């Protein structure tokens, strides 16, 4: 009996409250105070801060000048090489033997690419028995290509070592030689 009464009372309460939820509207937003200079009746004493346009122009001009100066300095100084062992880039790029190695490698790459393309075309049109032989040829081509790449890399490394040795800083040897000559001359 008590549960039945409780259910009836809760159903009646829900029925009376439901129309209020259905008719509920969001609260209206409060009006923002007018902060313009023209209105004397700004609310709560807040006023829009004054903007000094001349000051802003000066700051922007100083920032642009600073950036322009830094940009010119960076252009003049050039790119800094910060990593150890990377200072020989231009010497290596301009070296005749390295250029020849690069050109020969590019020619070999084009030749290899054309051979692989031909094998792919043959593979597409071949029967099942012929496909195995073509796949073996492709595997052998790939192995040969990797060997050629390693050989080319080794040749380039050797040439770079030669260039480094050629342009090595021999400052310590010169200083030691000068000390010895100075000691002999002073005797």
- In terms of structural class, how would the helical and strand content be classed? mainly alpha
> Spans of 5+ residues with little confidence (pLDDT < 50)?
none
Strand content: under 5%
Distance between the termini: 128 Å
Oligomer: single chain
The main sheet comes to: none
From the alpha carbons, calculate the radius of gyration and give it in angstroms. Answer: 42 Å
Q: What is the mean pLDDT?
A: 78
Describe the structure in your own words.
Helix 4 (96-125) runs antiparallel to helix 5 (128-166). The protein has helices at residues 2-22, 53-77, 89-94, 96-125, 128-166, 171-186. It has a domain at 89-186. By secondary structure, it is an all-alpha fold. The chain is flat, with a radius of gyration of 42 Å.
SSE topology:
Elements: H1 2-22, H2 53-77, H3 89-94, H4 96-125, H5 128-166, H6 171-186
Please summarize what this structure is.
The protein is mainly alpha-helical and 187 residues long. The chain is built from six helices and no strands.
What tags apply to this protein structure?
6 helices, mainly alpha, 187 residues, single chain, flat
């Amino acid at each position: 009996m008590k549960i039945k009464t409780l259910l009836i009372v809760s159903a009646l309460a829900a029925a009376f409250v439901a129309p209020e939820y259905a008719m509920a509207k969001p609260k209206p937003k409060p009006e923002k105070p007018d902060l313009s200079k023209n209105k004397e009746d700004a609310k709560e004493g807040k006023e829009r801060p004054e903007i000094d346009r001349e000051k802003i122009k000066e700051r922007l001009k100083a920032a642009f000048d600073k950036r322009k100066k830094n940009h010119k300095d960076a252009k003049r100084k050039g790119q800094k090489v910060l990593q150890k062992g990377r200072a020989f880039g231009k010497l290596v790029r301009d070296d005749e033997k390295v250029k020849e190695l690069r050109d020969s490698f590019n020619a070999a790459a084009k030749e290899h690419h054309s051979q692989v393309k031909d094998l792919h075309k043959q593979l597409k049109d071949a029967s099942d028995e012929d496909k195995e032989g073509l796949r073996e040829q492709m595997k052998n081509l790939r192995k040969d290509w990797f060997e050629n790449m390693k050989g080319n890399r080794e040749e380039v490394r050797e040439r770079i070592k030669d260039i480094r040795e050629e342009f090595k800083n021999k400052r310590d040897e010169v200083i030691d030689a000068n000390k010895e000559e100075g000691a002999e001359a002073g005797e």
